[in-house]
Amino acid sequence: MPVIHVQSPGMFTTVQDLGRYGYGPIGVSPSGAADPTSLRIGNLLVGNPESHAALEMTLLGGTFVFPDGGQIALTGSDFGPAIDGAPIPMWTASRLQPGQTLKTGPTREGARCYLCVHGGIAVKHLLGSASTHILTGLGGFEGRQLKKGDVLSIGEGRAKALTIVPEVLERLKPRKHLRATVGPQTDWFSPESVRTFFDSAYTVTEESNRMGLRLEGPALDTPHSGQMTSEGVSLGAIQVPAGGKPIILFVEQQTTGGYPKIANVVSADLASIGQLRPRDEVHFELVGPESARALIREQERLIQKAVIAD
Amino acid sequence: MTTFRYASDQSLMVYLGEHINLDTHHRVLKLLRLLEAEPIPGVRNLHPAYNSILIVFDPVNQEHGNIERTIAMYLERLDDVKLPEPRTVEIPVVYDGPDLADVAALHSISPQRVVELHSSATYIVYFVGFVPGFAYLGGLPAELATPRLEAPRKRVPKGSVAIGGTHTGVYPFDTPGGWRLIGRTPVEIFDPDTTELSKLRIGDQVKFSPCP
């Protein structure tokens, strides 16, 4: 099997695919790529099924040697990729000759860059997925972030590389203006708090990760002192614990929780959360159920049109 | 008795009762059983809890209205669902947790009495949630109900047996946590290398046995 040598892992790099579904009753959240739109398109560009495993790099990318060569595409945030010192474009399939080195650097915008490889990153699947779940050390490559000296196997690729359609990609750009619907406890909050939440700017704090993004901004009231009977929580739920500072639950979320939720980010904007970084300012806009449904269906249609054969 | 709530554009909350009790728990178990035996197309995940099940679906191909109509039909059949006899799982515990003395002092009983009470009850798994394998156990003797720590620990060691409010549980991984630690178990609570994965499952009965 061809391999990749990790010469430097970058700040925080993990193996991710589209996550593991169906294990909620035993407390396992899906995990998976923080920006699944970029992962899916990256896979399509190198001729993979869109669900193949890739490397998710965070804020600062790594350096990888391909002793057997390979075909890659980088998607998501622009980490300034170069092969043996020669810059290569993002969102484009590129070929490495045997022994060549791919180097990526700090992000130019956004938070996460995906390194997709023709054939995918081959790791043992756990509960149907290659995704790493960091808190529990499950899945992915040895259940952890990559480190210097790791050797990753590349799977067998079949289909031909494809080409991005820039006009479509433009329409899939990550947003900092997030649309959200009501959540199951929105009506527990005072109308003033709901208005404050949707009218204010919130800042992503440093204590944000794949489990959740903690926001700084106007404090909201906390109905019932922020306590309630624990219940299942949705991806993108915005919960308000005691103290009134909202938290967006993200891909490695806990499966159940006991804090009231004021709103829920729409499915179409979940991938955008994966491109937020500390100190980013975000706004929330309330949309109705019909708009939310139209948004995700339109996004899905765009993703299907984002790549074409040469 | 049953209410539906819009939870997000890809999930529907089903509340099966207002309070935490065995009746509601059995309704949760029965609906979960139906949903697992006869899956609704497009449903991607189920999150059962004390009195509810969150149903997560593919928002591109499914809609709240369809899910709600199907569940309404399942609910009409709920009384006919036969639940299997619960499994009883025994968890050995070394009762030497860092909060054992505090829990005893708060109730003005001896640590030995805490151990007797905790290990004499039969618990039920209301649900598994928070992190993989973490079972919320009901049936804690009232004398042992103890408020959570004011400042949660940043790291609770894997295997810790703990009391939080009127519940008890075992931490399957090193995680943050605010429950009071009274002991530890050598048993692997979530083991991805076994077919059962999670030692404890919703509906199980649990006994703790003290090890010397």
Q: How are the strands of the biggest sheet of chain B laid out side by side?
A: 1-2-4-3
Q: Strand order of the main beta sheet of chain A, please?
A: 7-6-9-4-1-12-11
**Number of contiguous helices of chain A:** 5
| N-to-C order of helices and strands of chain A | EEHEEEEEEEEEEEHEHEEEEEEEHEHE
* SSE class of chain B: alpha+beta
- Tell me the greatest interface: A-B, 44 and 45 residues
Give the number of helices of chain B. Answer: 4
CATH-defined fold name of the largest domain in chain B:
Cyclophilin
Describe the structure.
The complex is a heterodimer of chains A (310) and B (212). Chain A folds into two domains: 3-164, no CATH class; 177-307, Cyclophilin-like (Cyclophilin). In chain A, 15% of the residues lie in helices and 28% in strands. Chain A has helices at residues 36-45, 166-171, 191-199, 270-273, 289-305; strands at 3-8, 13-16, 54-58, 63-66, 70-76, 82-83, 86-87, 94-96, 100-103, 112-117, 121-122, 151-154, 163-164, 177-182, 202-204, 212-216, 231-232, 237-239, 247-249, 256-257, 261-265, 281-286, 307-308. In chain A, strands 7-6-9-4-1-12-11 form a seven-stranded antiparallel beta sheet, with no helix packed on it. A seven-stranded mixed β-barrel of chain A has the order 14-21-18-19-16-15-22. In chain A, strands 2-3-10-5-8 form a five-stranded antiparallel beta sheet, with helices on one face. Chain A starts with a strand and ends with a strand. The model of chain A has no long low-confidence stretch (mean pLDDT 96). By secondary structure, chain B is of the alpha+beta class. Chain B has two domains: 3-80, Gyrase A, domain 2; 88-210, Beta Barrel (Cyclophilin). Helices cover 22% and strands 31% of the residues of chain B. Chain B contains four helices and 13 strands. Chain B is elongated. The model of chain B has no long low-confidence stretch (mean pLDDT 96). The A-B interface holds A 21-28, 30, 126-127, 133, 135-138, 181-184, 229-237, 254-257, 261, 264-267, 289, 292-293, 296-297, 300 and B 5-11, 13, 20, 32, 36, 44-54, 56, 59-60, 63-64, 127-134, 136, 172-173, 175, 190, 192, 197-198, 201-202.
